Each structure stands twice: as structure tokens, then as C-alpha cells.
Amino acid sequence: MDIALHSPLKGPKRNIWRNFLERVGLSADETVDSTVLVWDEETLVATGSRQDNLLKCIAVAPDRQGEGLLATVLTALRQDAFRAGFDHLFLYTKPVNANLFAPLFFYPVAATGDVLLMEDRQNGIHDFLAAIPKTSAETVGAVVMNCDPFTLGHLYLIETAAKSCEHLYVFVLSEDKGCFPAADRLELVKRGTAHIPNVTVCPTGPYLISSATFPTYFLKDRDQATQIHCQLDLEIFTRHFAPVLGITRRFVGTEPLSVMTNQYNDVLKATLPTYGITVTEIPRLTVSDVPISAGAVRAAWCVQDWQLLEKLVPETTLAYLKNRT
């Protein structure tokens, strides 16, 4: 048996990998950083890949299951992840596969009928939420934002939401998939909302997952990927975040620019009330009748249009952008 790690996987072996995944009903995810191939002489018998701290495309040949090859793949991926600086790993799989990964120390976080999210820490999400400051307020709301970067539109949404509840949690997406680092985005929101006394700004950690890393490689109906992602995200929010933090209200901004975000808002409005969580949609702040967006801010920043940026972002964000030129 030969075990090889490729970072990245190239050449003829990549085609063999693609064909192997297709034979077991998966599609190759071309975004992965590293791939483990397990060979029995010239035959590929198992594989698994990693993208940052997400394990993907894990498969064992049907006629070789029960031989411990899954453990072999996961061990190699764990070692690769550790070398890359990741010590907390996640994987997506089908719910029927939960019993395959449980003996290998992966624990369920949340599931829908189509997708199961697992992590390699038994109490990972519980420990994460335990570290967030709690409030004794009776009406607690939440906003989840990317803030790439923090704009006056984001600030308007937060200020409006904060007036509608006794305490407001603002969760800033922790994934480093945007233009600005996650740590910087979080800090900009904290600075930009420091004047609002009933606001707590927190990272989402790895739990409120963005569509940037949500996998589709094992979904039969790719067109439903956005809906399935929303369902899993809401399962995590309603099963873990809301009960622990006492959240009974969720605030979103109207979304005239992104079809995907607008679909997500529709799912929120249809789903959260069944869990006792009201959803309030707040009209987007506009400048010259154009909705403020982080995309417009990034475009203006690229050409250093400071006059326009003064109309789009708080002073704290403006100072940050000037320091990054």
C-alpha cells in the first residue's frame, strides 16, 4: 500500500482522482489545497482532500471498505493540516455516513436531510459559545455580517437593530475569503460600533458557514446548493447560537444587489419564526438613491476615490483604508 500527499495534485494522477470520485458518486472539488491518494499497486483505492481546515472529497473504493482505509486517509489529512497550522478540523458528509466518522473522533455539529457537518472536537461549538459574553436582557437580537469592509450601511443596520432590542449580538464572518483579513474586519466593526452601548461584536468562528466554503461535491442537485447551505446554517443558528445566547430576534438588510443573499433572507423569514425567532428586514441605506455596498467601497478604494469613500464608510474604516494604500 502506498500513501502519497499532493499539494496540489497535478498531471495524470489528477485525472485518475477525478474519475475515481465520479465512480463513487462524488465530484472533484477543484479548490482543495492538498490531496491524499492511497494506492494498491497501480489502483487508487482511497482518497481525501483538504481546503484550509475543511476536509473534502473523502472516498474509499466500495470493494475496499472495512479495511481501515478511511482511517489512513484521515490520519494523513490531519498530519497535513497540522503542518499547515490548522488544529481544528471540519468535514461535510451525508448524514448516513455519521457512523463511519464517529469512531475516528469526528463529532456532529448540525445536520439537514442532505448534509452533516462534523468537527474533531467533541465540545467545540459548546466551548466556542461559552466564551461569548452573556446578557441578562429580555429581548436579544442578532445580526450576521461579512463586512468586507465595514460601511455606513452596516452601521445603519446595526444602529437600527440596536434600537429595537435590549441587546444586540453582531456576528462577523470569520472566514478569510474576502478582500480584507477576518481579524481586521472584526476590529473595524468593533471600532465602528463602540458608541452603541447595547452591542456585542463577536466572530462567527468556523460555525456560521459562508457559501464560499460550502461543498457541493456530494449533492445530486447542485441547483439546490444555496438552499441546502441556508438550511444547515440556520440549523446551527437555531440549535446552538440562539438557545445559548437567548436570541429571539434576527435582523437583516434588504438585498437588492445579490440574488443569493436575497434567497437567504427569504429562507430566514420563512424558517426562523417556527423557532420563535422573529425576523426584521431593514431597508438598505442609500447614497444618491444607490444602496451602499461593500463592493462599491472596494471599487472606490481601488482607485483611491476618497471623496466617495467619505460618503460610504465610517471614519474608522476610512482611516484603515488610507493606511492600506
User: Which structural class is indicated by helix and strand composition?
Assistant: alpha/beta
- The fraction of residues in strands falls at 15-25%
Termini separation = 52 Å
Proportion of residues in helical segments: 25-40%
Task: Calculate the mean pLDDT score and round it.
Answer: 92
Largest sheet, if any? Answer: 7 strands, mixed
SSE order in H/E notation?
EHEEEHEHEEHEHEHEHEHEEEHHH
Tally of DSSP β-strands: 14
Rg estimate, integer Å? 22 Å
The strands making up the biggest β-sheet line up spatially as 1-2-3-4-5-7-6
Low-confidence stretches: none
**Number of helical runs?**
11
Shape assignment: globular
Report on the structure:
It is a single chain. By secondary structure, this protein is of the alpha/beta class. 37% of the residues lie in helices and 22% in strands. Strand 9, helix 6 and strand 10 form a beta-alpha-beta unit. Helix 7 packs across helix 8 and helix 9 runs antiparallel to helix 10. The longest helix is centred in the last third of the chain and has 21 residues. The model has no long low-confidence stretch (mean pLDDT 92).
List keywords for this structure.
alpha/beta; 5-stranded parallel β-sheet; 14 strands; globular
